[in-house]
Design a protein that fits this description.
By secondary structure, the protein is mainly α. It contains 6 helices and no strands. The two termini are 23 Å apart.
């Protein structure tokens, strides 16, 4: 997913040798594949919402942003399930935290 691309790219430039070793360990201990998403460019926040919650935005009016317009109470998500199992969860994004109300929605 896009949020992981930027830190890995920066690590590669800053710590090439360490990163290559780390990347090799990751490739051997994880699986990967292709993820098909309904949007690209703008409005990827809806893909983010769908992946994290398992809820579809297909039935929202065109141009809607789930976080900004519809999330007003807690919604079960991958993060809340993992936090409930004792894992520490954090949201990292390369843009402003207030964009699409992420700073409000992620703490609900």
């Amino acid at each position: 997913m896009k949020p992981f691309g930027i830190p890995v790219c920066c690590l590669e430039l800053a710590l090439a040798g360490i990163h290559c070793h780390f990347s090799g360990l990751c490739r051997r201990s994880t699986s990967g594949g292709t993820l098909m998403v309904p949007v690209f460019g703008g409005a990827t926040v809806n893909t983010e919402f769908e992946v994290l919650t398992g809820n579809s935005t297909q039935f929202l009016p065109g141009g809607s942003i789930a976080y900004a317009q519809y999330v007003r109470q807690p919604v079960e998500s991958l993060a809340s399930v993992l936090a409930g199992q004792g894992y520490y969860t954090a949201a990292i994004h390369s843009y402003h935290n207030w964009f699409y109300r992420r700073n409000e929605v992620f703490v609900i």
